[in-house]
Amino acid sequence: MSEEKTIDIESMSAKDALGYFLPKVDEDARQAKKEGRLVCWSASVAPPEFCTAMDIALVYPETHAAGIGARHGSPALLEVAENKGYDQDICSYCRVNMGYMELMKQQTETGVTPATLESSPASRVPLPDVVLTCNNICNTLLKWYENLAKELNVPLINIDVPFNHEYPITKHAKRYIVGEFKEAIRQLEELCGRPFDYDKFFEVQRQTQRSIAAWNKIATYFKYKPSPLNGFDLFNFMGLAVAARSLDYAEITFTKFANELEEKVKNQKWAFGDNEKSRVTWEGIAVWIALGHTFKELKGHGSLMAGSAYPGMWDVSYEPGNLESMAEAYSRTYINCCLEQRGSVLEKVCRDGKCDGLILHQNRSCKNMSLLNNEGGQRVQKNLGIPYVIFDGDQTDPRNFSEAQFDTRVEALCETMDEQKEREGGNQ
Amino acid sequence: MSKIDELISKFQEVSNHPQQTVLKYKKETGKGLVGMMPYYAPEEIVYAAGYLPVGLFGAQNPKIAAARTYLPPFACSLMQADMELQLNGTYDCLDAVIFSVPCDTLRCMSQKWHGKAPVVVFTHPQNRKIRAAVDFLRAEYEHVRTELERYLHVNITDMAIQEAIKVYNENRRIMREFCDVAALYPQIFTPVKRHDVIKARWFMDKAVHTQWVRELIDTVKAEKVEPWHGKKVVISGIMAEPDEFLNIFQEFNLAVVADDLAQESRQFRTDVPEGIDPLEQLAQQWQDFDGCPLALNADKPRGQMLIDMTKKYDADAVVICMFRFCDPEEFDYPIYKTEFEDAGVRYTTVDVDLESPSLEQVRTRIQAFSEIL
């Protein structure tokens, strides 16, 4: 608390606020552990509102793993998980997390920090007292958290949002999810030994909506051409949309960011200066292990990432106080929906970003985000008349990504976009 | 040919020629065919519609070519095979296809069917043990019923589903009895023969299959139980094909005395409970079912279930038939592996891949393992 007095959040830039708040989420969890409060590990698009209302600190293994990947620390942890029996075929976020969990467990059991953990750039988040999952982005998260609960002998709160093979979402699916919310409340009351705090829950819901509104506003700056917003910044700021949307950390930071973008528009300061030659939509998870490379390669061609459906998954807008509306919000994630809905979201992102091309990540770690890439690309090509390429990659396992292949695909895309523009008589 | 061989060969004829079998069925009975994609789609609703539910478990040694355009190499070989069979017209004889979506690959597969038949998709709930899950699944099954009625121009009554549940439960009971009997006669039921009797269920009217199995059991039980000089194993996984794969077990004198395969025993492990609302009963079965990675349970009972199976069947070991690129199966492994080690249960893992089965590697592994046992 004394530290906060000396920190002037007001005058921080959005980037500084991100640099301050993102590590603070982990620090909060460490502090909670110290004070004997509970810590929960949560799937990235699981509803945090219930735990936050009960003063449980949340840690996000996917964000944690992405951070480790970006700092080149994933190979060591992948190896720990693979030695434990986790197949290389399994999602690398999960394997990084299982490796981290294993080392933390060893540390707790023996009192000695294993050398691999000692040398790891992983933020030292505490082990959880409870885990929370939600399969609105993949069914892998069910198996991953089932294993975490078993390995750590802690309760699992599961918000299973059934795959929407029909859209709009059916009434019975919403009712089922509301039933699960009630079960989650029951589990939390049992775990905390006190009644659920409905007043705080309502407050947290409203906070979440303010954070999300600010998050959504940022993406609207892609309407400008040239764009004041560099899409890769969404990947950077996304950490707070994941880990702090139920706290004011996210709202403060995103509001600053939106204000800065507004200022840039006023002053005509564009992300690529005068060098925005083309705009692309990025479909899929970022390649965290090569974020710099993927960004630079595109930038080298003057190609600005001006849209991605991935950061939009955290658009969980709903009506506070209405559980059915909340159930709908957490279930409608585009990759939890039938191809028609999924394709229309991707198409909208390309259109809203005024994109000239689409680049799809065939992610070895994410079957759900990869197996319909062809269909998505073809739809966009047919309806918007823009080209697409697919590259092989991985979010956090460097063995599955090749810079050379990525560069070749980007080159091919840029050439096609250039040709198309020439045919159409210049930049439209 | 002995009476027993004759009876078993009937099942083998079906298992080895599924397409021929179901086409013959269609011609002889005038009834239609509904494809059941793996896993755990409610066959009873199809049966009640007067159609034959047909299992779509790929093919033995499929030649994957056209499917490559639609699936990356890290989709499992079962889905690759199913995609190929859609594209090459093998599945054009189907009048409808039912998809469940318990894994990420199936979610996507359900959205890119390239066969001619209309597709009905439904979702299993994965917070299975709460009441709301039963209500949800009941509504999903209502959707399956309505869609089938629309596509097949039939009326599927509650009464007909209750009748189908009886037929299916009877088949489940007889299949459990068969597995127990087969375990006593490993000289008769080589791994492939055992598999073929079970696999035939996927392409036959279950009432007829039950009759055939009843006759087989009664005939076999008249034989004296001989001592088995080889070793006994329990196999676990999605499926254990092609035949050459199972023949390796026989080659090294390993009897399969029980299985925990999605294609086999997991299908008849749990009965549909009795009641007055058949769709709700079917939904309850999903709530009661356990031990499959596609049915979530934070207690992870599969390891203990396998340990119990080794005791019940006096098995020497568990052989994990790990289906390549099946992440749900891969997730269970680190958990039960530790449980086996703690309980002193011996185990080994062999890769299963329909397209490129790496049989030499499997042979080496099984040989080494049989020597250790």
Automatic annotation (TrEMBL), chain A:
Task: Identify the keywords attached in UniProt to this record, alphabetized.
Answer: Iron, Iron-sulfur, Metal-binding
Entries under InterPro entries matching the protein: FldB/FldC_alpha/beta
Cofactor(s) recorded for this entry are: [4Fe-4S] cluster
* Pfam families the record matches: HGD-D (PF06050)
Family (UniProt):
Belongs to the FldB/FldC dehydratase alpha/beta subunit family.
Protein name from the UniProt record: 2-hydroxyglutaryl-CoA dehydratase, D-component
UniProtKB/TrEMBL annotation, chain B:
**Keywords (A to Z) from UniProt:** Iron, Iron-sulfur, Metal-binding
User: What cofactor(s) does the depicted protein rely on?
Assistant: [4Fe-4S] cluster
Matching InterPro entries, A to Z? FldB/FldC_alpha/beta (IPR010327)
Cite the GO molecular-function annotations of the record: hydro-lyase activity; iron-sulfur cluster binding; metal ion binding
**Pfam families linked:** HGD-D
The Swiss-Prot or TrEMBL record describes its family as follows:
Belongs to the FldB/FldC dehydratase alpha/beta subunit family.
Name used for this protein in its record: 2-hydroxyglutaryl-CoA dehydratase, D-component
Q: What is the organism field in this record?
A: Megasphaera lornae
